[in-house]
Specification:
This is F-box domain-containing protein. It comes from Caenorhabditis brenneri. There is one protein chain. The protein has a domain of 162 residues. 30% of the residues lie in helices and 27% in strands. It contains twelve helices and 15 strands. Strands 4-5-6-3-2-1-7-8-9-10-11-12-15-14-13 form a 15-stranded mixed β-sheet. β1 and β2 form a beta hairpin. The N and C termini lie far apart (72 Å).
Length: 360
């Protein structure tokens, strides 16, 4: 039976809290506003989860870390300088990972109607003004998982995204897609677009692949600021007439990403597209590149089956040395570009040719 410490006289309470360590004080401190007041009366005025050391934080179970993070961040109205990152995954399940220099906590979102399928410790979690049912599994096996339950799993993910965006202006560090759950994809993407949530990196996986319609919906409605990568294999009929504005574009199996798509990627600093561009397409790109139409572009790789000599025929050669061009490549020809940049067409592992662009 627990001791009702908040009912103790102040003098007795002072003696008791003097024997608490920092971790125990934090737990008591976050029980209620009344507990907060009692600790301050007892002279403990700087009690905070955010003041704990790394070793002290790691003594908590994962659920307790999440609980303390949500309670303390709401109380203080800010996050500490712990380099927090929010990663969201829309796959066969919906998950959010909250990581910082002290811990990583993963939250799984489930439909409330499925709660009886999960065996584990049942609790409630407070996020904002709401209490959410939780089942933590694997506590005794050392692989603790947090499952939260909502009217729909997509609604749960949206609540967490909004909590960190609206209260702390925390962007989404990484957004992953790998599922055939079209409704989940479109619900999450529509919300991100309508709330102008910043997404730094978008990764579209291929196992299981999302549909072509959903992929186009992602392309049209989510703009990754830093990095966009796709490993999907799409049909020859797939077309995309928009622009990817990420600093880095990395696309495998990229028959759909035309040379016009490349030329319209004027915000990108790196473009790596493993398609099969023709001689005419590559020469069209070279003309635009040499004319300065992609001023931010620093690195580019385009796949082709065309011979290097045919691609760069008539262009002025560049005779400088570039370790990046020559590294592990059996054959390369380099040409001059604008402002000290140069281009290179080379073979790699006898698999085909690649055209590379980079600056000095």
């Amino acid at each position: 039976m627990g001791v009702p410490i908040l009912r103790l006289p102040v003098v007795a309470l002072k003696v008791l809290v003097d024997h608490f360590n920092d971790v125990e004080l934090v737990v008591v401190f976050l029980l209620s506003k009344r507990a907060d007041w009692f600790l301050k009366v007892c002279g403990k005025k700087n009690v905070s989860f955010f003041n704990l050391s790394d070793s002290e934080i790691r003594r908590f179970r994962v659920f307790v870390i999440l609980e303390l993070l949500l309670l303390e961040s709401r109380r203080q109205g800010k996050l500490p300088e712990w380099h927090f990152k929010l990663r969201c995954s829309v796959s066969n399940g919906l998950d959010i990972s909250i990581s910082c220099k002290h811990f990583t906590v993963s939250i799984h979102f489930e439909a409330l109607e499925n709660i009886e399928r999960f065996e584990g410790a049942r609790r409630n979690l407070k996020i904002g003004d709401s209490f959410v049912p939780v089942v933590t599994t694997g506590e005794n096996d050392g692989v603790e998982e947090i499952h939260t339950f909502w009217n729909t799993d997509t609604y749960g993910m949206i609540v967490f995204m909004d909590y960190f965006k609206n209260n702390f202006n925390l962007s989404i560090e990484q957004l992953n897609f790998a599922t055939n759950r079209s409704r989940a994809i479109r619900t999450i993407v529509t919300h991100i677009n309508s709330t102008q949530t910043v997404v730094k990196n978008v990764l579209v996986g291929c196992s299981p692949p999302i549909s072509e319609d959903d992929f186009k919906f992602v392309l049209e409605n989510v703009s990754a600021t830093d990095y966009f990568v796709s490993g999907l294999t799409l049909s020859q009929n797939f077309k995309f007439n928009g622009t990817i504005r990420s600093k880095i574009i990395d696309i495998m199996n990229a028959r759909w990403f035309t040379i016009q798509n490349v030329l319209e990627s004027v915000e990108s600093q790196e473009i790596h597209v493993y398609g099969n561009y023709t001689k005419d397409e590559l020469r069209t790109f070279l003309e635009e590149w040499k004319a300065g139409k992609l001023p931010k572009l620093k690195e580019l790789t385009l796949g082709t089956k065309e011979s290097p000599l045919y691609v760069i025929e008539g262009y002025e050669r560049w005779e400088g040395r570039c370790i990046q061009c020559e590294s592990e490549r059996s054959y390369s020809i380099k040409i001059k570009g604008l402002g000290g940049c140069h281009g290179c067409v080379y073979t790699e592992d006898r698999k085909g040719y690649f055209m590379s662009i980079h600056g000095n």
